[in-house]
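note to self: the first set is below, dont mix up w the second
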Amino acid sequence: MSDARMIRRSPRRRGDAALGAAVSLGLALGAFGCTPLDPGSWAAPSSMGRVKMTSFAPLVREVLPAVVNVSAIERPSKTAADEDATPAGIDPVRTRDTISELPPSALDKLLRRFFNEQHRDEVPQARGLALGSGFIIDPSGYIVTDNHVVENADRVTVTFSDGTERPARIAGRDALTDLALLKVDAPHPLPYLRWGDSDAARVGDWVLAIGNPFGLDDTVSSGIISARGRDIHAGPYDDFLQIDASINRGNSGGPTFDLEGKVIGINSAIYSPNGGSVGIGFAIPANLARPVIDQLKERGRVERGWLGVQIQEVTPEIAQGFGLTKPVGALVTGISTGGPAARAGIAQGDVILSIAGHDISTMRDLPLVVAEMPIGRPADVILWRRNREITLRPMTGEMPRGPETADLGTDENQSGSTESADVGAGLKLAALTPQRRRRLQIPVGISGVAVTAISDESPLAAADLLPGDVIESVDQQSVASPKDVLAKLAAAQAGGGTVVMLIDRQGASHYVALPLRSASAARRNG
């Protein structure tokens, strides 16, 4: 959403009606049961219990001086590398209206477009100018913004609401939450904002957003919280507030306020099929951002708890195959060698149901809980393993900084289903000979049976199985030959249940589940 276009504009005029900061709305809200939070800004309740909101202007006047514009001159190497990283148009979304209707791959591309793309001017040495927003969180000059605004900055400049410009240094960045902390030197204490409680924010609550969309500084928009806990596939800690206040490129890093003037979110991304706001914006919740910013201020980096597992969602089919009564928890698909989980005995195929007293309802609950756990302390982990619960006590480690942090990741491959009476039809398998291992580039540590071909009509094609995959286990039993695989598939089919296979694809493991019907059941229903 950061906008790198140079926008020529006349000197700032605070009273300019076109770009004015205050937005006045006359709305009767009593019918919706709204209650005023600032008596000085609202009319008194009428005898019928209605509350009339006269204007947002007093609130805007109070918070506006603490909102800033952020300009970042980017390094040439990043500009050149990213020049054509994102296509200008994405056809699959042209006729789609909602996120739920988009194919996951198209949605990811579209959100990344506004999360990362930066339009660039022709500046010396092909450098880009990224424009974003931010807000002062400490009177000594600490400013919060988004990481993607300054992640590759050579030089950062902050422009205050009175037009004053000051150079800023990056005090710390955290790519996993898309947050950054800047520091400017000021001759006197600066106006600053206070954090609000994003957990208390409700769907339907009013919010205001202030920022620098398309270089139009001090732009104010209003709306409501449309949803909570949105996962937009931006990172392992996605827990966004969805808002319908108008935000666009350049709003990145700007604050979302509640009606007490407290920051409950940091604007970070939008969904749009046309390049502009369509009322679907995403803000990082304040309760997620605040501890990250505190750590960046204290030590310039973020320390997080770490287990060293790769996980995926537990689908209804996988739950059935594993003997769970309902699809809950996080399914372990990989273990980091020497990590806390490996040392404690957590194994591939375990389902983590709770940790340190926190129930893991869905896969994405686990990274959020583990990240906040104290480092160096044991935590009780309740697992589902081979149709029963067990408890282990891993010692929480600190998340490594480097490529190995990918072990935190999730695998979102989805499983299919079938009712075929011949689950092995159309499937060709082969042993993992040294020659085949080299040809398929299968890592040395992976054992199992290679899939060499699979027809579109094969029931297993619905289970996300592809040529080149390696079947490591069937129903949590290792396989070493094509005969093993076919025998276990036949046995699972005879039982009429769900077969769960562990698949390695290009070095990444994930589980796929396939509900089966026995041949007799197929005949009865056919």
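second set (the one i keep forgetting abt)
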Amino acid sequence: MNLSNTASQQRVDPIEIAQEMINNIPTDEDHVKLVTQLTLVCRELALVDETTATFFILERIKPRFNLSQGEARLLLKPVRVFRKRYQLEKLHADQKKTSHEFSSNFVGLVDVVEQDGKPAFLVKNSYGALSIEDKIELNDRRLVPPTIETLPYLLPRADWVMAQFERYRMRPAKEVDSALADELLLYFQESAELSEAAAYHLVTGWAFSTYLMESFQYSPILWLFGAPGHGKTRLGRAMIHVSFRGVHLETLAAGHLIRLATDHHATLFFDVKDLRKKLRQEQTLDLLLFRCERGLTIPRVSQPGKGAFNDMRFYKTFGATLIASNELFDDSAIESRALCLRMPYSQRSLADPVTPELALGLREKLTAFRAWHLGNSLPVPERSFVGRLGDISGPIHQMIQMVKPELWKEVHEFIGGLDKEDKACRADSPDMRILRAVKDLAEVTKDDKLEVREIREKVNNDRDGRPVLSVETVGRKLTALAFHKTRTCNGRMAIYYDRKLLAALLRGHGMAFIPVVPSDPSGDSFQV
């Protein structure tokens, strides 16, 4: 018989059950079997008080089986053991019922909102209706919102969000979304000065995307770049204050980033001096890079003493990211995941401070936007860019296509211009120097092989003050660029220079490719 089941069952009279049990035991039962049978009786007696159990043992069990006084009293010991076990089981069951777990992320949650000065869950059910809950029962877990003191961002006010949500019921969603986009655009225009109108539309689309991150596989790092005093921090604050759970950080500590990503699903704004140095010190470059793609996990040993499989956890850090810096980070891994906005020198006065309180009204409207669209299919426009640029620009494209589709052409051209600027900035990178050397040598050779030593000499002869590259470095980079290695007849390392591959690489690095009709029918001449 299962003890927990016995303890949990509602007994009408355990004494009657015990009496029936001893009636079924023969009075001449073998001593060993008798002890076993009476132990089962003691388990029933543990459900009544001590006095009643003692009376039953001395007045009914003792005379029936002809036990001595000492033998009868020995039966009180298992009764007490079972009674203590029942009490512990009841205590654990009561604790399980009353214990809770702090959470700010589960399916159907719109956001944690403020109601009557306290945090509450704003939940969207399967029928599209909203409700405000102070707790949620989910798979034997009782979830409650975190306390306000533990949240590094203002909470939207519940009644204001509900009022904004009603606008979607009264008017077409496209009309409400478009009006909200206009409000966001005006807010950014009053908060900072950008180089052109398309830049404002881009940051508006990015802000919308932070509220529907569940719908995206990728998210770009938005990089605000400029000299001191050009308004990077001001624009970053304006953006983070209207973003979904936006947090302004001056640290890159791994513990902070992991908790903000996994517990809060926060939008992060890194306003950090010497970004390269701090990333190296904190060893958190992987955390920053992995924020750009859903599904990537960061391994960390959290409890070394627990042994294999129990000492390590894998954290998902995907989320919207914003960086302000007065230096470009010379790392292709970050550059390929970022859209870099170059901040102009501000020509006008921007006196009003940028505060979370000022942006709260817009956050509440954006929370209503999230509530309406959460769980719905988003428009999936045709891919506008190839490669990783197409991946990271996808969320902004989808948001603009949903709220202001007529603006996408302008934003598309702007993003294309940013990409060209980035490629121009990387013109002196080692990869670019090597590709130019391969191109120049390919134009004057009739062989289909180029020696790595010869490419290295060409690179260093044209270095114009830039660092000297070794043969090993040039060889590794040629391999990374997908050129196939071979050896010449004298045993020297060489590459096959595939003209189509070279042309594609040059285009990808921002050099125009102009095909030329070959003079030799077997050739594929080209000009760059």
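remember for set 2: The mean pLDDT is 85.
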